[in-house]
Amino acid sequence: MIEARGLTKRYGDKLAVDGLTFDVRPGVVTGFLGPNGAGKSTTMRMVMGLDAPSAGGVTVNGRHYHDLPWPLHEVGALLEAKAIHPGRSARAHLQMLAQANRVPGRRVDELLELVGLTSVAGRRAGKFSLGMGQRLGIAAALLGDPDVLLFDEPVNGLDPDGIRWVRNLLKGLAHEGRTVFVSSHLMSEMALTADEVIIIGRGKLIAQRPVGDLLDQSALGFVRVRSPQMDRLVAALDAAGASVTVEDDGSASVRAMGAAAIGDLAADVHAVLHELSPQSASLEEAYMELTEDSIEYHGGQPVGAPAGGIR
Amino acid sequence: MTIAATSPVATVPRRQLPPGRYRLTDLMRSEWTKLRTVRSTMWTLGIMVVVGIGVSALATAETRAHWSTMPPPTRLGFNPVSTSLTPLFFAQLAIGVLGVLVMSAEYGTGTARATFAAAPRRVQVLLAKTAVFGVVALVVSEVTAFLSFFVGQAMLTAPARHATLATPGALRAVVGMGLYLCVISLLALGLGTILRHTAAGISVFVGVLLVLPLIARALPNSIYNSVLRFLPAQIGIVIITNSSRAHSFSVWVGFSVLCCYAVAALVIGGALLVSRDV
Ligand SMILES: Nc1ncnc2c1ncn2[C@@H]1O[C@H](COP(=O)(O)OP(=O)(O)OP(=O)(O)O)[C@@H](O)[C@H]1O
Ligand SMILES: [Mg+2]
After folding, report:
1. Residue A248 is part of a domain; what is its CATH number?
2. A187-222: per-residue pLDDT in tens?
3. Are A257 and A189 in the same domain?
4. Whole-angstrom distance, CA of residue A6 vs CA of residue B177
5. How wide is the angle at C-alpha A24 spanned by C-alphas B19 and A18, nearest 5°?
6. What is the C-alpha to C-alpha distance for residues A144 and A73, in angstroms, rounded to an integer?
7. Cβ-contact B88, B177 below 8 angstroms
8. Between B8, B26, B113, which is nearest A142 by CB?
9. Do A50 and A109 have their domain in common?
10. Of A190, A215, A240, at which residue does a domain stop?
């Protein structure tokens, strides 16, 4: 369980994390989403006691990180940047961490095996590929068999096979009842992995909800309606408070009213329905909609493109 | 690879935590592993010993070769002990660089995040580093000092004068050189902790040893004479020449001053370690 209360981090003038309050529960994978620079990595560093909050606080299993008697046995983390000496072997890296918290030495070999690095365990980590480094980081996170796990963009640099492996690992860890907190800026990735998402933008909380609910509440979802008696139907929908847009192809896009209610209304006014199809936004669209206002670093318009011509 | 069936973490029974909390000895074990598992440690310490012996052999062989043509006053002033301990000037740079690296490499490579996540009591980490690196530095420094002495004395064959450990003050000079190197390396560790940056740490360390004496020399004589004794390099010279010098502390007073520098650097480093973000 991770509990953040009014968590705030200021770097000079810059408010990197702005009064975040959220809970990360055990037993589910909680995705941590936000555009570049939203404050995800900063938040995770504060959870780990590496950066001190400017205001507010965060606890892990009810304690401040600093007060954990055996940190690696309680919290494991794969943070954004590599945290490995390039001159040290993978085995030595895990060994020195294990010793700091009295993790039994055999765990080192078990984890090297688990992440598939046994054959290169004696090689200097500086020679590792991005993916191998990521796997070593994951092994380090799991070393103390912790209940709470943080992963900052764990699939960075992994091939499709590796991505699937991480996805299953995260789900498996949550399934065992652990708290799994994983950041990403890709909604599509979180849609496959997370049960719940916390979305932030410019350091502020935008939403915390189950992944499934993201779609329901999106204004991008609508119901497409076709009817030979379109005029009568549109008037009735309008009167009932739905927002209706008649499209060029003669169909109508109805928002703020469900398909069932539209069907009932059509029967009331004796309109024949030729189409009644709910159109849900993609998760990616729902996410973009939520974070639209808080994207700090927009890509530039291609030179010569008409303003607003590309979305 | 699926992990649903074989849980990666099922091998250790849950909640079987050791009693109490992690201790300084756990961190010392970890620091010892860190120190011996990077090549730069072995290289630096190896070079320090080997080059130390080489420098001693060169310096004494040179004296031996020119002994017969030396003017009598030079012969009279010849100090076989300090000549065999000239490697001090190189060895202090080697062990100092390593001292800086013990902390700065953590930041340079990002290992600091893993280290302080495992041990959020940061001052304890610094204590563990100081203890482990201090002992290693002391052992290697004494080995360098004694080997330099013995090799140097072996080169000083008759008619050149040579010394033995029984020569008055010789043992103190040799042991003192090892102690000096150990403490200077801890001063470097303190600088590495304060600056967190390898290049900056080494620059400041080298500046203290080599540039400060030059700056001091540029000052008016009266000031020079009163600041000279406080310079670490001068304290080192007094220790190996084993003679009282003008405008200098005596051996043990100088050594105590040096210890104060190291402690001050480590205390400031520790305070910054706690107050800064990793
Ligand atoms: N040590 C620091 N000093 C100054 N500013 C910082 C520091 N760390 C982060 N920031 C700033 O705080 C903001 C949040 O950064 P952070 O790395 O937490 O974002 P993020 O959500 O992880 O982004 P990304 O998706 O790109 O990884 C950014 O504007 C960043 O420039
Ligand atoms: Mg980040």
Report:
1. 3.30.70
2. 888 888 999 999 999 999 999 989 877 766 666 678
3. no
4. 55
5. 110
6. 4
7. yes
8. B8
9. yes
10. A215
C-alpha span between A226 and B229 (Å, rounded)? 96
Number of domains in chain A: 2
> What are the backbone dihedrals phi and psi of residue A152, each rounded to the nearest 5 degrees, phi first?
-95, 105
ipTM of the complex: 0.88
- A168 lies in a domain? yes
- Checking if the pLDDT of A30 tops 90, the result is yes
Atom of ligand 1 nearest to the CA of A185: 25
Question: A227 and A204 in one domain?
Answer: no
**Residue A178 shares a structural domain with residue A226:** no
Q: Is residue A240 part of a domain?
A: yes
Residue A152's beta-bridge partner residues? A183
Domain boundaries, chain B: 25-67+78-275
Chain B, nearest residue to A162 by Cα: B1
Both A199 and A232 in one domain: the answer is: no
Distance of CA A246 to the CA centre of its chain: 36
Rounded to a whole number of angstroms, the distance from the CA of B138 to the nearest CA of chain A is 23
Per-residue model confidence as pLDDT tens digits over B112-151: 999 999 999 999 999 999 999 999 999 999 999 999 999 9
Interface test with B, best of A17, A66, A85, A89 (most B CBs within 10 A): A85
Domain assignment present for residue A302? The answer is: no
Which of A29, A58, A74, A97 to probe by mutation at the B interface, max B CB count within 10 Å? A97
Q: Which domain holds residue A72?
A: 2-215
Which residue's CA is the closest to the ligand 1 atom numbered 9? A42
Count interface pairs A-B at CB distance under 8 A: 132
